[in-house]
Amino acid sequence: MSGYLIGVDVGGTFTDVVGIAPDGGTTLAKAPSTPADQSEGVLAGIARLAEMLGLGTADLLARTGRIVHGTTVATNALLEHRGARVAMLTTEGHRDVIEMREGMKPDRYDLRAAPPAPLVPRARRLPVRERLRDDGRVETALDPDSLAAAVAAARAAGAEAVAVCFLHAWRDPTHERAAAEAVRAAMPDAFVTTSAEVLPQIKEFERFSTTAVNAYVGPLVSRYLDRLGGRLAAAGFAGPLFVILSHGGVAPVAEAARLAAGTALSGPAGGVAAAVAIARSGAARDLVTFDMGGTSTDIALVEGGEAALGRGRAVGGERIALESLDIVTLGAGGGSIGHVGPGGTLQVGPRSAGAVPGPAAYGTGGTEPTVTDANLVLGYLDPARFLGGRRRLDPAAARAALARLGGALGLSAEATAAGMLRVANARMADGIRIATVRRGVDPRGFALLSFGGAAGLHATAVAREIGIGRVLVPLFAAGLSAWGMLHTDLRYELSRSVLDEGTLRDEAALRAPFDALEAEARDRLRGWWSGEVAIRRRADMRYGEQVFEIDVPLDGVDWDSPGLPARVAAAFHARHRALFTYDLPGEAVVLVNARLAAVGRLPARPSRAGRAGGGAAGGGAAPATRPVHLEGTTRAVPLHDFAALPEGAAIAGPAIVESDTTTVLLLPGDMAVMGPDGLLDVAVAGGPG
Amino acid sequence: MTDPTTPDPVTPDPVTLAVLQARFTAIVEEMGEALLRTAYSQILNASRDFSIALCDAGARLVAQADHLPVHVGAMPYAVRAVLDGVGARPRPGDIFLVNDPWHGGSHLPDMTVVVPVFGEDGTLRFWSVVRAHMSDIGGATHGAYNAAATDIWQEGIRVPPIRLGEDGVVREDLLAMLAANTRLPRDFRGDMLAAVGAARLGGKRLGEAFARHGAARVSAAGEAILALSEERARAILATWREGTWRAEARLDDDGRGNDDVTIRAAVTVGGGRVAVDLSESDPQVASFVNSSYANMRSAVAIAFAYLLDPDIPKNDGVFRLLDVTARQGTVAWAAEGAPVTLCTNHSGQEILEAVLLAMANACPERAMAGWGKRFRIAITGRDPRRGRPFVWHLFHARPGGGASPAGDGWPCAGEWGVVGGIKFGSVEMAEARFPLFFERHEIHPGSGGDGTHRGGPGGLATIRVESEGPSVGNTAGDGARHGVTGMAGGAPGAPHRYVLRAPDGTERVLRTKETGIPIPAGAVLDLRAGGGGGWGPPEGRDPAARRRDAEEGFTA
């Protein structure tokens, strides 16, 4: 693809737009996000980018080869409970699957919490007489009268979207398809989705819940992407528009709208995609991403250049069982508020000042001390240079807020600020430990990739807490998500349950589901992709009597020669041993779900992310040192301009390395070297102890 | 790294204290994750029937992971039993094990691994504790729940505190001996090693904290956390009314023909403490509903914790405000040798409910209505599709949760001691793996108790048993005669009703403690679980909510 590439990440406060020029030059533009219609902010950001490049918007868009977009429309609809009015057609006798939630309740000790309202209330869960057996045999044929009654009820209820969720439909979608046809005929404007199409897998709660989410967010996501496409076309864009999905790959808008539930993690996916790109560039094979924003911090793992995936995700309390990046979100960020906790301890968060009223230093009404205020009072942040000088910070207001809190604890403002950072950093370190142990890995062998507005001030301290010896900070930290979207691939994820206990004894039976998935994936990709396609296979497998399946990557398994069942079984035994320290070679192995990803590798473009223009100029040469509170004393700490550092420049901590959009704090003993592609590579002193 | 904000070497400042408080919580969570990942058996993985704790050198509970509430506060008794016996002079690398209900255990399936943690100077600082429910523990029937048992020896193998390993190495001979006494030796061995691994991980993580902060300071932080937790609980208690109240809760029966086995609680709130007296409870019975001491203490602790704030630390600082009196030889605290296996469900539930009902008088605005009772059924028979035997345990048709001042109860979220912590399996998967056909699995209309806030409905399952030839069922549970309590004028939840309908149309209502129930092929189990209790007078219910209930079919 020729011309510019544009990545767009819509955040809570700012919309980041990254442009990569044909020569690899990379530019970040920011515009305020527009929550009512995100596409306005997107267009404003593109206009800003064009201006920075000295082009007209139409001119830039005419020269743009592709736009990749991360959207939070689905996420926000789930978090704010303002999705579509959904009706569900479901097997008679089983209408409460999404309300019973498998008997699980989060927050076990809160017995004074009312249950959440289901996405589809019971009165709109409409029973249809039909029933399949687990092997796909028809127990009860689809009854036309009960179907007609259910469709009429959905229509009378004013449903904008209809989810069709029948038991065992993953085995045979015939009944679901017939029901969907009946709905489409009676309700031509409705968004119609079926469980077998969304997630053709056994286990009805995961499948029905994901389908209900798809119906709930589908109409909003479709309308939004239509609107965005319209605006972009009107502004002169004729190329392809892609959306980054929860699994970190991208898909064209039509696919994203069809499987809208798969965009629920579109927002943070860009940062993980960037981490994958950085890992594959050779900087470090194993990374922990540390994406610290205003209200929360996202943590994900990249192992051997691959992002960790999972299927247990809930957004807004709703289960989405589609393949998605395994991102752990902690409720602590720059806006987290410090306060006196139970029994006189200093606590940080979970309450956040957000963008409004914001940290005390913003002077926009916030009076409580936030992590950002603490960083300011300790001298880590330059009040004149925050967000490229667009927001002046008021150190006196920050100090006053911290002094008030300190008064209650018997601590000075500085000691309170230092204490808040210690508490926040310890919490993030604990979050990273839990995120890594859950995947069965030791974080100490990983490098910490720091990005997002606030991460650079905390990364070296958090790394110390955990015993991580290396921190990487891209100069582009503030726009890394949008940049990452331009470094990921087209990806189509398919799965299908198999669940025949004989699958692993029969070569043909084992190949069949994977071959079918591959044919479907290639077929679907054909519409939007003419390049080479890589096929990645995985399977969910278990020993015969076990309850839970484990996810077994089959990338290394030779798929072409005979004897496949033995090789797949061996991959399972090995994976089981790696995860649980033992295997049972004599036991029967059951393959429950076949999974396949078709990946169309988009042309990579080497981009010098480090040489980005960071928006407004920083206001002259930075002073050579700044007084900073470190380890209980105030000292003059050297300042370095991140953007001006030549490759190979070495900086010993303590030091502050800052750009318009990010600030990195190097602690005593740390040694940073400016790497290629604008990556600051920090060797962290010591470790724990 | 020394900490400049902390001048003296032992007392933690407010910041270090917050850091260490978070560290204790993170350690118990990490231990739980480790156990989940390495355990063999379904019961640990699926039901998460395990618990993790850190106790201080004096066996006081400092931190506990939020798994099944049923274990809350019970673990220190196991540590104390170790300290009083074989572990009186622990050495680094020791691994202790206990399950005996008369040595700090709750019931025999719960194996508790206890590992001492020493500071850099060799001083005992903490105990890392892991309790895990084993799939089988020997005894007269498979899977530990033996409704026919008349003494503890029919329930399985008793393990008073023993030194299972030294110098960090498990004694293979002891482990083999224990495993040989269970029907699932491979699961047992795997789960035990997983529990030992998790307990040792806790010790390792504490050691790292010692290296960083100094063991003395970490110990002092534990002490300070207990003091702060106590202070916080006292502040809540200060808002409670003072006085003495009595309440009771009844089990349906003991399964031996004696109905209405009753727990009687007297609760006195005053002077910043809460006294609980269970000594007027009925005498112990001849079946497995008797409670062990640790289980009784746990039920009392949970009742108290539920009425405090949801995020109140579950530690000794809070629980030491309780003065508990009970009489050995009662159903609330059985004498040595009695069967006790069902007690983590029943009578644990009834102890909790009686105590909570009495305590609620002191803080009516905090009190929630009753959560459901457990009614297990296990079926064994022959699977015609696979041509081999099957064993199936019912986890569907869960009972409903109690209503609260905040709103209606949770549907199908389970019992007082579980509160949404056990996942029932997929119907599709159950049909694929067992010769069962679920004609219906939905919410049980009308089962939640009426009230200003309605109790959560239980589940309803209509299951056809398609075995080859007849199957056999065993039940273990309670709540078919007495539903769970309402609160503040709310109505009780409906009791369970399990009916077995034979192909010839004859019906049999199942009792909660039966063994050897014949189930002909093609018979249908019609299982209607009880709902949670209602909260507040029914006439106070918002008419719109009542209309919605009718429209949604939540009321019968």
Automatic annotation (TrEMBL), chain A:
One of its GO terms (molecular function) is 5-oxoprolinase (ATP-hydrolyzing) activity. Residues 207-493 form the Hydantoinase A/oxoprolinase domain. Residues 6-185 form the Hydantoinase/oxoprolinase N-terminal domain. Pfam families: Hydant_A_C, Hydant_A_N, Hydantoinase_A. One of its GO terms (cellular component) is cytosol. Residues 614-674 form the Acetophenone carboxylase-like C-terminal domain. GO terms for biological process: glutathione metabolic process. Gene3D superfamilies: 3.30.420.40. This is Hydantoinase/oxoprolinase family protein. It comes from Roseomonas acroporae.
From TrEMBL, chain B:
Residues 539-556 have a biased composition (Basic and acidic residues). Residues 523-556 are annotated as: Disordered. Residues 13-538 form the Hydantoinase B/oxoprolinase domain. GO terms for biological process: glutathione metabolic process. One of its GO terms (cellular component) is cytosol. GO terms for molecular function: 5-oxoprolinase (ATP-hydrolyzing) activity. This is Hydantoinase B/oxoprolinase family protein. It comes from Roseomonas acroporae.
